[in-house]
Design brief:
The chain is α/β, with parallel strands linked by helices. The protein is built from 19 helices and twelve strands. An eight-stranded parallel sheet has the order 9-6-3-2-1-12-11-10. The longest helix is centred in the middle third of the chain and has 38 residues, at 164-201. It is globular, with a radius of gyration of 23 Å.
Length: 497
């Protein structure tokens, strides 16, 4: 069935106090989606972030980002006062996130709330239900706190190697601090479930995003090192990345430890199945980042400065997805299959039956008239995007094209490239025209935003994951325009057709 949605990170919501949260602005955006005739809200990964603030390098694959806690809800619960909340500086720029200010302000106000929090039976039941991951996460965060924020690889040996006696001694002394991190996740769980239920009531499905790898400095790596290709000190010989491609001529080094797929297979992929189980508690549809990694993955010598010496190794392939589909027969997934097309990746996508991705920007840069991303080459069982979080906005992208590319895209989408605002909407229209069952457009494109609204610049650590929408910027007129486009190309929800 044809449908449409909008890509809009939670951190980009125009919530007060420095960053997008699970606040009333999230509910208002769901209302906007419904008014615009949309079926999906696609978000980026929702886990807690570490150094660099990338949601694709989460501290935990199970926890939610504490920055997403709606402080207005804490005020209503009586855990903090408005005066206390407003006494902290969360950053002064309404259009960009100041992570340094958040670090200094948000943690302090959460500590104030925790002091007044009285755990009830619901809290105890939550902690018991989520104990498999929650205890390790709370212990990891507390150890990190008392080791000056250092990577777990730099902790004292007993903590680093998870020596039972050393950890128990730490818990006996500092155990009450663990409860602070459990409290955060409990509040987030309640806020997320409420928001998710509201989205469902409005006919909106949330598309979540699972990062393929764990961050080196993460609870997952520390607690599940047995599943990774690292030595007894946690040191890898190879790290993850991407060979040279359309995003980077020298490839990308992500720095993540690699999985020991042989061990995982013997354990029936239990840790991965747990990750998917958690994701299906949170989302209706999953976008699996770096789907290519299940077919084959890039191993880059640890210490190299580029990915040019990377080698490809075989992933678990269809064996993994058979186990996944047995566990979750109603699996709904979008495979992020971007990058170089290899026979192994193409076959795995076909065998799984999952829809892949078509990024329209890629159709006109460097491929000529042969690109598989051109709309007349799309397949129904796929998802079309104008661009993703890793792409420039379509307005910015237009300015990067050479004369030949501009002429080609202008002819193909029947648009005047010298009218940038009109072109962006024509470009969106081209995506909507696609035979792909699902069309997802970044919110910035509907708003005809430029470079200032870019989410991420692959290969660079500067000014990423910071864009926020100005307060009260979405309008009924915009929703109406999107609705008209959605109706024209047969993408309205079934009950509205």
């Amino acid at each position: 069935m044809r449908g449409a949605g909008i890509l809009y990170p939670i951190f980009s919501l125009s919530s007060p106090y420095g960053m997008g949260t699970l606040s009333k602005e999230a509910y208002e955006f769901i209302d906007f989606l419904k008014e615009a005739g949309q079926s999906y809200w696609q978000v980026l990964p929702v886990g807690p972030t570490g150094f660099g603030d990338s949601p694709y390098q989460p501290v935990s694959s199970f926890a939610l980002n504490p920055y997403f806690i709606d402080l207005e809800d804490l005020i209503e619960r009586g855990l903090v006062t408005r005066q206390e909340v407003e006494s902290f500086d969360y950053g002064q720029d309404l259009t960009h996130i100041d992570y340094g200010a958040l670090y200094n302000g948000r943690w302090e106000i959460l500590k104030e709330a925790y002091v007044r929090f009285k755990g009830d039976e619901d809290y105890k039941a939550y902690c018991q239900k989520e104990a498999d991951w929650l205890q390790d996460y709370a212990l990891y965060m507390t150890l990190k706190q008392f080791n000056d924020g250092k990577s777990w690889m730099d902790w004292p040996e007993g903590y680093r190697n998870r020596d039972p006696k050393a950890l128990q001694a730490f818990i006996d002394e500092k155990g009450h601090y663990l409860d602070f991190y459990c409290f955060q996740q409990f509040i987030l769980d309640q806020q997320w479930k409420k928001l998710h239920a509201y989205a469902k009531s409005q006919g909106i499905q949330i598309i979540g995003d699972i990062p393929f790898y764990c961050a080196m400095d993460s609870c997952d790596t520390w607690s599940q090192s047995k599943n990774l290709l690292v030595d007894e000190k946690g040191q890898p010989s190879y790290v993850a990345g991407c060979l040279p491609d359309a995003f980077s001529a020298t490839g990308q080094i992500w720095g993540n430890p690699l999985y020991d797929w042989d061990k995982m297979k013997k354990a029936k992929y239990d840790c991965w199945l747990s990750r998917f189980g958690r994701a299906y508690e949170l989302f209706d549809v999953i976008r699996m980042d770096h789907f290519h990694g299940f077919a084959e993955y890039c191993a880059i010598p640890y210490g190299d400065e580029t990915a040019e010496n990377g080698i490809l190794k075989k992933g678990p392939g269809m064996d993994f997805f058979k186990a996944l589909k047995t566990k979750y027969p109603d699996l709904k997934m979008i495979a992020e299959d971007l990058g170089t097309n290899t026979p192994e990746k193409v076959k795995l996508l076909e065998d799984t039956g999952f829809p892949g991705m078509n990024v329209l920007q890629f159709a006109f840069t460097g491929y000529g008239h042969d690109s598989t991303y051109l709309t007349h080459k799309h397949k129904p069982n796929s998802v079309v995007y104008t661009g993703t979080h890793d792409n420039p906005t379509s307005l910015e992208w237009l300015g990067t094209l050479n004369d030949y590319e501009k002429e080609f895209v202008g002819k193909y989408v029947h648009s005047d490239i010298y009218n940038p605002g009109g072109f962006v909407w024509d470009f969106i229209r081209e995506a909507y025209r696609s035979v792909a069952d699902t069309c997802i457009v970044p919110l910035q494109d509907f708003l005809v935003k430029g470079e200032e609204a870019r989410i991420n610049r692959p290969g660079s650590t500067a000014a990423n994951w910071q864009w926020r929408l100005e307060p009260h910027f979405l309008s009924h007129e915009l929703a109406g325009s999107i609705y008209a486009l959605t109706e024209t190309y047969g993408r309205l929800p079934k009950e509205e057709k």
